[in-house]
């Protein structure tokens, strides 16, 4: 599942862009921001979301286990 994927800190992914994106932290059970370079991550399989709302919506099952 996407919500259990890799953790991101600082800038991740190749490329020169600086997109604000979010990832789900299973330890803290919260969606956290990171900077995405624009290349090298998959929105379909990686723990990467465009907004906090999208992150919380996708990971609501994980959040309900708290």
From TrEMBL:
Domain BPTI/Kunitz inhibitor: 3-59
Superkingdom: Eukaryota
GO terms assigned for molecular function: serine-type endopeptidase inhibitor activity
Gene3D superfamilies in alphabetical order: Pancreatic trypsin inhibitor Kunitz domain
Entries under Pfam families matching the protein: Kunitz_BPTI
Name of the protein in question: BPTI/Kunitz inhibitor domain-containing protein
Organism the protein comes from: Didymodactylos carnosus
Lineage of origin: Eukaryota, Metazoa, Spiralia, Gnathifera, Rotifera
């Amino acid at each position: 599942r996407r919500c259990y994927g890799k953790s991101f800190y600082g800038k991740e992914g190749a490329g020169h862009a600086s997109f604000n994106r979010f990832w789900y932290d299973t330890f803290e059970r919260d969606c956290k921001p990171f900077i995405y370079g624009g290349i090298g991550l998959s929105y379909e399989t990686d723990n990467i979301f465009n907004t906090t709302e999208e992150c919380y919506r996708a990971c609501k099952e994980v959040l309900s286990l708290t």
